[in-house]
Design goal:
about 55 residues, mainly alpha
């Protein structure tokens, strides 16, 4: 049993890191999409920043 674990350990690690990488990338992707949505929302609904500096 130990021999099997030692042999498959690199594969387990590789799978683990692959899972972390894909989940991290999808999280970053979602965050980026949300940030873009929010910034577009602000750009359309709020007046430009110059408006605030002049008043």
């Amino acid at each position: 049993m130990e021999h099997f674990l030692i042999q498959s350990y690199p594969a387990i690690l590789a799978g683990f890191f692959y899972f972390i990488k894909t989940s991290t990338l999808s999280t970053i992707n979602l965050l980026t999409k949300n940030v873009l949505k929010v910034s577009l929302y602000h750009a359309y609904l709020l007046p430009p920043l110059e408006y605030y500096s002049t008043t």
